[in-house]
Design a protein that fits this description.
This protein has a seven-stranded mixed beta sheet with strand order 12-13-14-11-10-16-17, sandwiched between helices. 43% of the residues lie in helices and 19% in strands. The longest helix is centred in the first third of the chain and has 26 residues, at 101-126. Helix 13 links the parallel strand 13 (371-374) and strand 14 (391-397). The protein has three domains: 6-128 and 146-255 and 468-474, 3-Layer(aba) Sandwich (Aldehyde Dehydrogenase, Chain A, domain 1); 259-460, Aldehyde Dehydrogenase, Chain A, domain 2; 482-511, no CATH class. With 517 residues, it is of the alpha/beta class. It is globular, with a radius of gyration of 26 Å.
């Protein structure tokens, strides 16, 4: 079994931004598949965060002076290193997160997609842009993009490199320093990617990783950074947004989801059911964009449930470090308890288990079978609360209108999936759904992998966006620079001040009629 070696952990441990880590308390990092110890990580303090931000702030001033093309070249080099060390990264993600190798590879590809997009298109997005001025030829106005300073990133455990490093890359390209608080359960995956960024040319002081509890390290980071990027629960997101608001700093947050899928009568049930396995059970359902609700038109509902149940029961669960496994482990005992509670509550209140529905300690301590439920009603906990595990509920609906109404009947609005008889029909349905991303003919992959498009949530699913121009420019302060060839307010051509002032309005009216103004 290709577990990361102890030498690897020892090397990565040296990258932690903590003074005298040997004198600090430590947290044990287990292999999730078995629970056995992989390594320990020193626990940071508020003082460590303060020191890391101070170093990043000093390094940021020099980094921001580097030409954009040089900063972009670092991301291109990083992308090459990600591919070169892909097996080591996949091993680390599997060991620390319990992922199947296919789910780990999705995360690795996210790094590559982000590095490629921002290295190629970022310099043009950040370049000064001339905008229409009130008096062309007399006033010239440009918009410049200055870095925020030091960006704080609080990352989750489910995608510890995609939702830390992929957010850090545009912040770094924009000229910022970055301090990351990884989740306490998955610090080494983040450190492994940070090591490659250092090798690619990121100055060590510019990018720091401080592991530790959210109440200590996270709060200190919010109290000192110039902008915050957070991925996690809606409840925590609200608290952090309040902290940011008190300091008058910006924040972006991708939060929870209870993501719907709509399947119309014209869809192919075999194609949809196979795709639903990825959409619902990718990363064991521990994915903000995973599908937890499926609405199927009545003529197709019974057949679809039968096919989905059969495919789900055939899924392979195991601890192998290869691509033979369909689904890996849950991440923690807390996740296992939540999934078990939701399923048992649904069963007790009358739901039917079509597939799965039980823990699998015979495979590993945190395994739970992929589960399909029918007959779920609003009084059941899994109906509206985010399960964040391998559980999906299937509902029969009369028509598309009912499906759309029920899909939108949620406080969340992160991701949705639509399957119809044609792409055009699917797109028409997608336009009616209140979610930040909608995938027509897939579950979540295409929208998340389209780095040129914004990704984020509506409602309780978040504020702000990652990816695209929005995911880069949010890390900047736009600055308008207007240059006048002459002082317009002063009278010209020998006319009196009074006459000149009366002339200004007709002059502006004339200018605004010029074609192309």
């Amino acid at each position: 079994m290709p577990l990361p070696s102890r030498t690897t952990f020892d090397r990565l441990r040296t990258l932690v931004a903590i003074d005298d880590p040997d004198t600090r308390s430590e947290r044990v990092i287990p292999e999730v598949f078995t629970g056995r110890e992989l390594a320990t990580i020193p626990v940071g303090t508020a003082a460590d965060v303060t020191a890391a931000i101070a170093k990043a702030r000093r390094a940021q001033r020099e980094w921001a002076q580097r030409p954009l093309r040089q900063r972009a070249a670092v991301l291109s080099k990083f992308r090459s290193l990600v591919f070169e060390y892909r097996d080591e990264i996949l091993d680390m993600l599997q060991a620390e997160c319990g992922k199947s190798r296919a789910s780990a590879q999705e995360e690795l590809l996210d790094l590559a997609f982000n590095a490629h997009y921002y290295a190629k298109y970022g310099p043009a997005l950040l370049a000064p842009k001339r905008v229409p001025a009130p008096l062309p030829g007399i006033i010239k106005t440009k918009v410049h993009y200055q870095p925020k300073g030091v960006v704080g990133i609080i990352a989750p455990w489910n995608f510890p490199i995609a939702l830390s490093i992929s957010d850090a890359m545009p912040a770094l390209l924009a000229g910022n320093g970055v301090v990351i608080k990884p989740d306490s359960q998955t610090p080494y995956s983040t450190l492994a990617a940070v090591e490659l960024l250092y090798r690619a040319g990121i100055p060590c002081d510019l990018l720091a990783v401080v592991p530790g509890p959210g109440g200590t390290v996270g709060s200190a980071l919010v109290d000192a950074c110039d902008y915050l990027m957070f991925t996690g629960s809606s409840a925590t997101g609200r608290l952090l947004a309040e902290q940011c608001a008190r300091r008058l700093i910006g924040c972006s947050a991708e939060l929870g989801g209870k993501n719907p899928m709509i399947v119309t009568a014209g869809a192919d049930p075999h194609v949809v059911a196979k795709a639903a396995l990825r959409a619902c059970f990718g990363n064991a359902g521990q994915l903000c964009m995973a599908i937890e609700r499926i609405y199927v038109e009545e003529p197709l509902a019974a057949e679809f449930v039968e096919i989905l149940g059969r495919y789900t029961r055939d899924m392979v669960l195991d601890t192998n470090y290869d691509f033979s496994v369909d689904m890996g482990s849950l991440m923690s005992e807390d996740q296992l308890k939540t999934v078990s509670r939701h399923v048992e509550d649904a069963k007790a209140k009358g739901a039917t288990v079509i597939a799965g529905g039980r823990a699998r300690p015979d495979i590993g301590p945190l395994f739970y079978e992929p589960t399909v439920l029918t007959g779920v009603t609003d009084d059941m906990e899994c109906a509206r609360a985010e399960t964040f595990g391998p559980v999906v509920s299937v509902y029969s609906v009369r028509d598309v209108a009912e499906a759309v109404a029920r899909a939108n009947d949620s406080e969340y609005g992160l991701n949705a999936s639509v399957w119809a008889e044609s792409p055009a029909a699917g797109e028409a349905i997608a336009a009616q759904i209140r979610c930040g991303t909608v995938n027509v003919g897939e579950g979540y992959g295409p929208a998340f992998a389209t780095i040129a498009a914004p990704m984020g949530g509506m409602g309780a699913s978040g504020v702000g966006r990652r990816h695209g121009s929005e995911g880069l420019l949010k890390y900047t302060e736009p600055q308008a620079v207007a240059t006048s060839r002459t002082v317009i307010a002063d009278a010209k051509f020998g006319v009196s001040e009074e006459l000149w002032r009366r002339t200004l309005v007709p002059l502006i009216q004339f200018v605004q009629k010029i074609p192309g103004f």
